[in-house]
Write a structure and sequence with these properties.
The protein is mainly beta. The chain is built from three helices and 29 strands. The protein has one domain: TolB, C-terminal domain (Neuraminidase).
Amino acid sequence: MKIKNLFSFTLTVVGLMLLLPSISISQKYDARPPVPVMSVNEFTAMMEQKAEDTLSNRQDGLKSTNRETQAVSTYQSIRIANGTLIHTPHPWSPEKNPLWIISADSTVRHLGVRLFGTDIQMDIEGIYLNTNPRDAISFHLDHVRDRIIYSQKNGNWIKAYGNNLENYNPGHYEFFNPKGMAVDINDTIYVADSDKGKIVKLVYNRGSASINYVTSFTISGMIHPVDIAIDQIGSLWNPSNPDSDRIWIAYEFSRKLVEIDRGGNIRRQITNCNPFKLQVDEQAGRLAYIDRSQNAFIVKGLKYLNTISTTTFDPVTSSLSCIGQDINNEWWVGDERMKIYHKFTESGQYLASYNGVGSPSGQFDSPVAISKSPYYKSGGTIYRSQYVFTSDR
């Protein structure tokens, strides 16, 4: 197995800067106002009005959703107009390669809706089509609108898959609150469809630049899967025969991590944990995950599932949100509350924390998703990009 680097830069954010966390907390306690007293008739009238308002809001939301799905179905892709991409040279690149950021209001103008929901827990991954990083495809999982938004870094289009488009596009799978996504070297996309309790297998078609449904399946005892990651050790040695690959799934309600093969058969489990996000390092043989009950970043060895390191963060000042990995097999852990990324070695030793000072927005506002640096195969050579993709809510 030969793995080569694709030159670019590590994070698609601008001007990462060392941040030494220093937080002070102040609390102010005010006396509660007295609870107003109302009659039974007044209470009944208030509840009836609330019910009418709720029904009206739901109907308005349904109409908005119908407009949105019709627009996506009709156009299938959005042609980005001039001015909707922000061109920013990356300071670390000797060639000053531009960094393209899709502005959040671009889909408002084209579809009449925001690019993402406002209370979203996104996931993000990427596929490399060749050794040119500008041709990469990024995939954003939006659990609020039940869809995958995907676009080409060097293209002028944005497409959507899902979003309850079954009536408009019969080939689309209909998600129900999907939470986790993983992409492999063979352009296969796995999605943890949480509320349906299923794992969905899709494939990206390079010829048509579209996502196609393959199958979906359940696993014995799986309730509400919230994330998924692929151990591609088999594919990296023999991309045409990924049977020895393994897939890890985080079960929220069952409080465990489960390893399956490509056929959906359970191989191993890690119990007595509360996994929220996970990622796999197949080269170093590591499994990393965020334990929500501890607000901790945990790294285990894949061979024996032994705990290598545990880093716990104060839940008052910190809220871990995502895990990514760069070409150096170093972990990037998002912290939504502190608005930074924590960086760790492959074995989980803390290195530093970075914010986004110098980026177009001034800093990270809400880092909720970061990808694993993707692989690309060409003949007998496996390439790995130095790019990772990030989502800032």
